[in-house]
Write a structure and sequence with these properties.
With 117 residues, this protein is mainly alpha-helical. The protein is built from two helices and two strands, in the order αββα.
Length: 117
Amino acid sequence: MKIPSFLKSTRNKVLTGIGLLVIVSLPFFFGKDELSARTVEAQLDNLEQMISATGRVTSAQDIDLAFDNSGKINRIYVNVGQKVLQGQILIKLAMDDLTALWQRESANLKIAETRLN
C-alpha cells in the first residue's frame, strides 16, 4: 500500500491523528447528555394481509358425477354450495323421456322374446 505524500512526516501524522480523534469525539461532547428510548409493550394480535391476484380459482375437492340415464331435469332439490349426504336425492328427471325409454325397451324385450320362441 502506498502512503500519501502528506503523511510522510511525523508532524503531519500527528496532526492527522488529532484531527480524526476530534472528529470522532464530537458526537460525545456535543450530543445529548441522556439517551432516550421509546418502549412499547408487546401484544398478541392477528395479522391481516391483503393479496390481489388474478387467475383461476379451483376447488380443493372435485367430485365427478355420473348418471345411468340422461334426461331433462324436472326439479332440483339442493342449492349450489349446499352440503349433501350420501344417497340424498339431488335432482328429479322429467319422467316423459324415461317413460318413453321404458316403453321402447319393453317393446324390444317382447320382440326378442317372440324371436326366441
